[in-house]
From TrEMBL, chain A:
Origin species: Caulobacter ginsengisoli
AMP-binding enzyme C-terminal domain: residues covered: 409-482
PROSITE patterns reported in the protein's UniProt record: AMP_BINDING
Pfam families named in the record: AMP-binding (PF00501), AMP-binding_C (PF13193)
Keywords linked to the UniProt accession: Ligase
Listed GO MF terms: ligase activity
Protein name: Acyl-CoA synthetase (AMP-forming)/AMP-acid ligase II
Family the entry assigns: Belongs to the ATP-dependent AMP-binding enzyme family.
Stored PANTHER family: ACYL-COA SYNTHETASE, MEDIUM-CHAIN ACYL-COA LIGASE ACSF2, MITOCHONDRIAL
From TrEMBL, chain B:
Species, as recorded: Caulobacter ginsengisoli
Record-given protein name: Uncharacterized protein
Upper lineage: Bacteria, Pseudomonadati, Pseudomonadota, Alphaproteobacteria, Caulobacterales
Amino acid sequence: MHTALLLDMVAGSFPDRAALGPSAASVSYGELAERARAGAVTVEALGEGSLVFIGLNGPTLPVAVFAAGLLGRPFAPLNYRLVDEELRRLLARTAPSVAVVDDDMLARVAGVEGVTLLARSDFEAACLDPANRAGELAEVEPDIAVLLFTSGTTGEPKAAVLRHRHLAAYVISTVEFMGADEDEAALVSVPPYHIAGVSAVLTGVYGGRRVVHLPAFTPEAWVEAAVAEQITHAMVVPTMLGRVLDLLQARGETLPHLRALSYGGGRMPQPVIERALAMLPHVAFVNAYGLTETSSTIAVLGPDDHRRAIASDDPAVRRRLGSVGRPLHSLELEIRGPSGEPMPAGAAGEVWVRGEQISGEYLGRKLIRDDGWFPTNDSGWLDEEGYLFVEGRLDDVIVRGGENISPGEIEDVLRAHPSVRDVAVIGLPDEQWGERVAAVVVADPPVEAETLADWVRQRLRSTKTPQAFFFRPALPYNETGKLLRRALRAELAAPVPA
Amino acid sequence: MQLTPGSRWKSAVCDTEAVVVRPPSSPVALECGGQPMVAIKDERPAGLALDPDFSAGSLLGKRYLDAETGLEALCSKGGAGTLAAAGRPLTIKEAKKLPSSD
């Protein structure tokens, strides 16, 4: 099923309803469909290949997503925050292509072979041109909808392939057609090159919820937009939530219109979500777990799960606040051991998933098996009631003397220490044990390594107690909040000059 | 009638349009208003009328299911006819409403 049909259904039945942008100057579903059509006609005349998008969030993003769909071409949003050399290297990989680029970014990507550049302002003007709106488009067989370059925390970015059928399956199985009330508005602050930025376009349109894009995230811009636009729904990554809460507290702002806040894209520190629940009691919190390769969300911890967990004295229920909830009904999820054997409740292994929204494919490489199961490379376990606990990337699991040690558990314990502002636990090469546990800590006020070691030893086994502590002013994150463990490992594993 | 996922169909006797979401486990005819649906690009056959026994209507945006074959179709345009498979009216598959996650 073609994602363009989703917009057709909405635009055909609710052409005048507000779809995008601030309420004072919104774009309707009918207008979005017209612009997408004109955009497709424009891009088709310029050249062949993928429709690349390099720019900030805004109403032009959905226009470009649907324009690419109408042409049956992949939509490939690139990370404009990369340094010029990396950005140009990724852009070269999309050739042949037509790239819609923010005017002030054009100079950074000029002259890449096989890529036709189109300034965003020219694209936007062309989408309003009656001649383009009247242009003819050929019927196309939908195939690849989106090419998303993964963040590359584990090496050279891979181009994840999402087909129309994956995205459409995700949308229609998780969102009720035009199920939103007319006063609902979603604030999208994840960038266009993040899977949540793309899926928010599709689920927003199909659900009939007006989408307000934040051009780029800052806590100030987020809070100001949430207040001004009476935002009812939003999605943030964990690092954004902490910063938003700080600002709300400083300003005494309570966001009375906000009804639901979902978070995902990385591990949420438990103190942050506990604080959020206390500060915003009227908000329904949702933890959404998913990967680019799974067309976004595959498990959710819903508002009731949050409330039950925070109110419970039962440790098994309480700890679910640190889980990602239960798998969607529309797919299957299993934990498997190293030889593919299913693991019982409580035992950790690799998270495998199967369903119509699962792509599990990169350009030139398929990880999804013939039977439809996809190994996520995430390590996790299910509790007795099917709540999924994700421990992190399988590659990040520390193997010390044959014992698998998950960094997340140790990080949670360290983070609960009053001096610890942030922490990363990683494995470093060790001659005796294969790997040893090391912690990189941001501490304020300063704290002795031995004090932290005792803190962990009292709460976990001694084998899980870090043997080395490194203190840093900050930890390296990419701009969507993913901790760059690889960078830390590379830095700390390097031989120290004598 | 090749009811492949993503294939689009229109009613021969009303405005209804549907897209196949899940194919049937065995061949079956997808009908609307008592008549077989036709491929979206084909001409509607002349002279057919809406069967009053299949005139309960179809609703835009609803997912319809034939429990016997597993055929599932999304109504992409509503109309006066009832969606059916081999004479069995399809039932609306209630979406398990999920909290917004993105």
